[in-house]
Amino acid sequence: MNAVATKTRRRSAAFTVFLKEVRENLRDRRTLLSAFFTGPLLGPLLFVMLVNVQINQQLDKADKPLHVPVIGAQYAPHLVDALEEGGIVPDAPVADPGTAVRKQDADVVLRIGAGYGKAWRQGEPVQVEMFYDSSRQDTSSAVERVQKLVEAYARQQGAMRLVARGLSPGTAWPVQVAKRDQATPQSRAVLLFAMLPYFFVITLFMGGMYLAIDLTAGERERQSLEPLFANPVARWKILFGKLAAICLFSLASLAITLLAFAVVGHLIPAEKLGMELDLGWRFAGIVLLLMLPLVLLLASLQTLVAAFAKSYREAQTYVSLLMMVPLIPSALLAFLPIKAQAWMYAVPLLGQNLGIMRQLRGDGVGAAQLGLCLAGTLAAAAVAIGITVQMYRSERLAISG
Q1: Where in the chain is the domain with CATH 3.40.1710.10?
Q2: Which pTM value belongs to this model?
Q3: Which residue in 176, 189, 196, 378 is deepest, having the highest Cβ count within 10 Å?
Q4: What is the distance between the alpha carbons of residues 109 and 91, in angstroms, rounded to a whole number?
Q5: Nearest residue to 123 (alpha-carbon basis) of 90, 178, 161
Q6: Is 66-169 a domain of CATH 3.40.50.720?
Q7: Which pLDDT belongs to residue 3?
């Protein structure tokens, strides 16, 4: 009977470790805040608030009269009248337009030269200078608005000059470009949510990070596994129990984030920008499926990296550096014009990024793409788990002290 009981205890060792770690970390406020509040709830709320502020600022500038200092307005009264009809309010001229823009005293400044009137009467080209700062994203709509009004006035006056000479206005534009934008309202939402895949990966990371650190370096410092296992237990069972606990917390964190985005996504006025945003249950289900193998991979990598540390603080440093790795595929897709190839879906992290972006654009994820993503990440997770198991079996890593 004793032998049977011992064998049963050994078989359930991994599950025992899993229950122990889940129970203990549910009492840890630091772990709960990191896994279930800081990233999953606070992150989406801040994200939506910032997007709303940015959208409302741009819409306010587009609808309200725009105050623009105009230098030399007396030289081009007809141009100034056309700007006023377009919602531009000419303000008093400034002494130094470049300084006014750099100091953010004005979004854009127009300067009309003294020779404008003479050149205009002689039918010669005239020049209007527009001062702005392209590094300020909040002024882009104002600059574009003023530029379009000036160009529209120039085209109108050019056409009138041709008509006065008995020529067709089309003579000046023998080739016209007909724009056919193939973007759908849903695909345009990618412009606002290009970093959303990285946010999901970081949520997974944060959900299990403190748990992974606590179950390696933390256990080593506290010597807390000795009283639990008086009988010899295979180290891989202890490891699997720990990994299961980390995966549970990571998945719970991701589920809370997806639920939060599904709710707060309705608060984003995307339709005002001609966009359509769908972060509902179908989107959440595809993201959760894509992320499942990544949960195992990140949990094993966090455990492996943290196991090298001799103290809790040292483990925090190592795992924090590991957090920079998921940024690479998101940065590549955000800043480089990469055309997705089939093999890319088999690359961990990159495949998840591509799949989430396709789902966000409304293109959907095909069965072949989904299979490659799951297979590639699961293979990487198996390798990472194998390396971690070998490390836990090594004599130099004392799990129980």
Answers
A1: 66-169
A2: 0.72
A3: 189
A4: 9
A5: 161
A6: no
A7: 46
